[in-house]
Amino acid sequence: MLAGDMTKRRLVAAVWWLGIVISAVMLFVQPLRRGEIDLSLISPFDNTRSGHAEQWIFLSEAARHVPRDASFTVLAPDRDSEMGLFMMAVGLLPEASPLPSSYYGQPTGVGDQARFVLELAGPSPEQSLEIQSTEIIGGRVKTRWAPEL
Amino acid sequence: MSIVFLAAVLGTSAVLGLPVAVQPTLGHLSVSARVALAWATGSLILTLILTSLSAIGMQWTLWWILPACITASALSAKLIKRNQAAKPGPSNSTRFKLSFGSLGFALVAGSGLFAFVFGFATSADLSYFWGVKAAHFAIERGIDFELLRQPYMIHLHPNYPPLWPVLLAWGAMTARSMPWLAVPALTWVCLTAAATVIFSVLETRLGARAAATVTLLWYAVISTMMVTSFSGGNADGPLVLFLSVALVVILTEPEEGPGHLRWLAAVALAGAVFTKSEGVVAGSLIVAGTAVRDLIWRRSKVLQQTACLIAPASATIFLWVVVRIVHDLPLTDPIRENMFQISFEHMGLIMHVCIRILVTNVVMVGWLVPLVTVFLVGRRQLVRAVPGVVTALGILAFAATYYLHAAGDPFQLIVWTFPRLVQPAMSAWILGFGVAVFSVAGEGVPGAVLVEDTFR
Hints:
Chain A is α/β, with parallel strands linked by helices. Chain A has helices spanning 3-33, 52-63, 79-92, and strands at residues 71-75, 97-98, 102-103, 106-107, 116-120, 131-136, 139-144. Chain A is elongated. Chain B has one domain (2-86, 100-337). The longest helix of chain B is centred in the C-terminal third of the chain and has 31 residues, at 411-441. Chain B starts with a helix and ends with a helix.
């Protein structure tokens, strides 16, 4: 092989290896860049720092208070969080019946028919006499006395 | 619970895909690559069976899958016996040895596994729809069409292809609950399986050192992108697996004579289109790029070869369209898609945000390294990169066009989806230029170690 070709070959390999080293280091330091590392494996989102872990833990706790086949709705301090919470709740309470209070930011009206209200911590609407409230991690579960519709 | 889930998802698929792994045309690949291919193709077979059962109203049980597993095992045993009777060909795979390559692979694999297992990379979409569908399908023992039809369930994207949620549902049904914590690790399995196949295919074409270099850059860049874009547990892992397998097989075809592994690329493309809607776009671009390259090379029967490449993918698309029509599911995404209602006023924002994402950290490394080395080696062998380059640039063009359809401000949509849309494009870019560059500068020429010579 010509000397020029050999040099070119080494140069190409060197550039690719430089890319490999940079990418591998970036992957390696990703966990360190997220701050404190939590190895408890409580939720799939423990170290994403996205707020999903808190919602997950709240819904996992709330799921214990909602019987199978019972209807429920979710409430959150803002509409975006409420939509996210509702989507997550459909998966974490798969044997209950989800009724959204709002859907993609729009009030639905069907949430009022739900027997259980899973309310994420935050400014709470006025307490009604028809509601029994149980405080759990991350929020509260309210049970409506009215029979299920 | 997680162990049973992983055993069901990985084990059942691997058994169903065994006949693929023992194919004589794959005899030159390493055992680990063939195991990876058995799992990948088996997951397609498993989900096709389960989707078909649901389509005709049958509940999933082990008794439906058991005969398929027994048939696959018997077929594999027969193929192995026949292969042993034939004259054995030389193995082209290198034995494991301590090197910079193996150390690099271990570092990337270990870092990736840690990030995916300990919740650094989990996708919100896992808890919003991929895993949600799986949890419901597992309880219903089939695709829950009634759930997908409900008006307040359009966030589940009822039109999306079913491979990933059906595969997860099979595992959850077997484990009797949905082990959410275990799912993100499957993304790591997909990436590692893809890296194993890529290395083994490239090794027989480019030599061990060049193959290790291309594979490692691919593995490190794609793993980092998956972690930084929070793709753990969603369908991007299997999509990248299927598309990368298809591409690496096509890119390493000899310039003259037929590509003897094209059937494998065709099966992988079927897997891609059955995994995500983007799989149809990326798959079409791979097919188009391959046809262009074959025409430039003046290969014979281009039309026939292209038809063979798209046949399995077309069949799986047809199946999913029929299932949706029969069960009254939407054919397009009810949340996002307003076909042909384009707002060109979004163009400035789209360009600005997309370019920002494309020049960020590891993404920049992924674009630059192959491009710089192309300038170093010159234009020789660049035609070989055409399927990869067409796919990469085509996906970016598709993304821009898609965002032009956004109703309202597309900023959130771009920030949410573009880092993930780039992943298959990046995979195609690295593989395309990697094979082209190292076929000039490396120690081998693609097609030099011919499968057909060994196994004819």
